[in-house]
Design a protein that fits this description.
This protein has 13 helices and 21 strands. By secondary structure, the protein is of the alpha/beta class. It folds into two domains: about 5-45 and about 435-520, Sandwich (Immunoglobulin-like), CATH 2.60.40.3080; about 50-415, Alkaline Phosphatase, subunit A (3-Layer(aba) Sandwich).
């Protein structure tokens, strides 16, 4: 193929908007990309921002988390469970932190945590199972869906899923049973495991001999192909998870071994710093532990211990993200299926209620603020429970629009209608995009166009493990390999291209948590 013919075909096929900078200067964002390539940019790409969901299973008692210290009705309703004002940690003139939440108090003072008061939804359901499903599917209480809000959002970024699997998992749950929230309309978009090493070992033992065999053209063959797709994704993702964990084997803080939530977040921090491009993580304090019907405890006991686990774990996690250099990429929120009733019961506990506060955390939240009013204990619903001030989907809308930069039309797909987003996340250019600016500036490919090989040159600000993937113009991964450990400074990777068909390709460089992508061209 002649050079002129190649350029004409490239221009028609990829709708190049401009070649004014020359072939060596073409960047991925200078292309009118195909939907698949645009999805690749979003997935490996578009934004490397991460959202961490922390599930407080069982229904957290909001009134004993953020205490209305100036409201006598609170103390009347809870003769044995109320937290004395003198024992709380000051928050506002009328509110106090539970004394176990020192970690949250420090984050709030540092501008890394915000509080949203009185969150629920219209006609709240007080069942654990149904209440949890509503939060995970982002539906009204009388609407039943089999897909989750995270899954539906990720499907907008991966329109070819599951026929074309992303190189790395879109969502990860640290646990054993995959959440409904990660379920899409075409299958689950997440994976779950307790730790990266055991996940890889388990999948690796299964073997791959039959995973790529052609399935028979029967109804049973279709089912078999679906199962094989799931197994292939497990193989692919277990390797991606292990690579990320191997790149970042240590944390910068010490997580207590007797805090299960902290241990889960320890793994999440390693995977993020190791370069895993996963968008959503879900961790939990599980086992219905927040279902405190009996002997809940006021200053000591079950609920105070759970709050301390929560506050300490999130504080350590965010500090670790700072130490690992990924704090600008990470925000998250807590959620629980419902709050507890205003009145304590006869067993020194609280029963299923409605509204409760939730917490949004991270370097780029609009922290240090309490959104909403103090709980109104004088005006309750017909069952004596708290009234809604904010719909939980207003928090989801804020995450989608403000953090991930999704268009407003996405809300119709993900949340089924538009909700007014709460002002929770900073929308500034200081949040790092998916590409590291300095790494992008240093990236070059010579010669470009190339024939049998090209040299990828770059400059690293710090030592890092380097890996390279090459994608075709449709976003499909052609090859991937680990280039090894590099010292800070200038480095190169040889790209063999003699077996690539003539055309346009994109090379993605991963150096620790830093990423960059550049277009190159092959001529024969």
């Amino acid at each position: 193929m002649k050079r002129r013919e190649f350029l004409e075909r490239s221009a028609r096929g990829l709708a190049l908007t401009s070649l004014v900078t020359g072939l060596g200067g073409i960047r991925i964002n200078a292309l009118a990309m195909s939907p698949t390539l645009r999805a690749l940019e979003q997935l490996t790409g578009g934004s490397d921002r991460v959202f961490v969901l922390i599930q407080l299973t069982g229904g957290n008692d909001g009134l004993n988390t953020i205490i209305p210290v100036e409201n006598p009705l609170y103390y009347q309703a809870r003769p044995t469970l109320a937290i004395p004002k003198s024992q709380t940690l000051p928050l506002t003139d009328t509110l106090g932190w539970h004394p176990s939440l020192r970690g949250f108090r420090e984050l709030f003072a540092d501008g890394r945590l915000a509080i949203v008061q009185n969150v629920t939804y219209p006609n709240p359901d007080r069942s654990h199972f149904r209440g949890t499903d509503i939060w995970l599917t982002a539906t009204d209480s009388d609407v039943f869906k089999s897909s989750g809000w995270v899954g539906r959002f990720l499907e907008t970024l991966a329109p070819s899923f599951p026929e074309q699997l992303p190189d790395e998992p879109l969502a990860v749950q640290i646990g054993t049973t995959l959440s409904l929230g990660f379920q899409g309309n075409r299958g689950s978009l997440g994976i779950t495991f307790r730790d990266p090493e055991s996940f890889y070992s388990l999948v690796d033992q299964q073997g791959t001999n039959s995973l790529y065999d052609e399935a028979p053209a029967t109804l049973g063959g279709s089912e078999l192909e679906f199962v094989r797709t799931v197994e292939r994704s497990s193989q692919l993702y277990s390797q991606a998870v292990k690579r990320a964990a191997d790149r970042q084997k240590t944390n910068t803080v010490t997580y207590p071994t007797d805090n299960p939530l902290a241990q889960s977040l320890r793994i999440v921090a390693r995977l993020i710093a190791g370069g895993l491009t996963t968008k959503f993580y879900l961790v939990s304090i599980g086992g219905n532990t927040f279902d405190t019907h009996i002997n809940q405890g006021a200053l000591t006991g079950t609920h105070p211990q759970l709050l301390q686990q929560l506050g300490d774990a999130v504080k350590l996690f965010l500090d670790d993200c700072r130490g690992l250099g990924v704090a600008d990429r990470v925000v998250g929120m807590t959620f629980s299926e419902f709050g507890r009733r205003v009145m304590e019961n006869g067993s020194r506990g609280t029963d299923h209620g409605t509204a409760a506060p939730l917490f949004v955390f991270g370097e780029h939240v609009l922290g240090g603020q309490v959104l909403g009013h103090d709980p109104d204990l004088a005006n309750l619903d017909s069952r004596g429970d708290l009234l809604m001030e904010f719909d939980y989907r207003q928090v989801y809308a804020a995450a989608l629009l403000q953090w991930f930069g999704a268009p407003m039309t996405t809300l119709q797909t993900v949340l089924f209608r538009e909700f007014s987003p709460l002002p929770l996340f900073q929308q500034t250019s200081s949040v790092a995009p998916w590409e590291d600016a300095a790494l992008v500036q240093s990236l070059s490919i010579t010669p470009n166009p190339c024939t049998t090989h090209a040299v990828l040159s770059f400059t690293l600000p710090a030592p890092a493990r380097v890996s390279v993937t090459i994608h075709d113009a449709c976003g499909r991964r052609i090859t991937a390999y680990d280039a090894g450990d590099y010292a800070s400074g200038n480095g190169t990777v040889l790209l063999p291209t003699e077996r690539l068909a003539a055309g346009t390709y994109f090379v993605r460089l991963q150096a620790g948590p830093r990423q960059a992508m550049k277009a190159f061209f092959v001529l024969h």
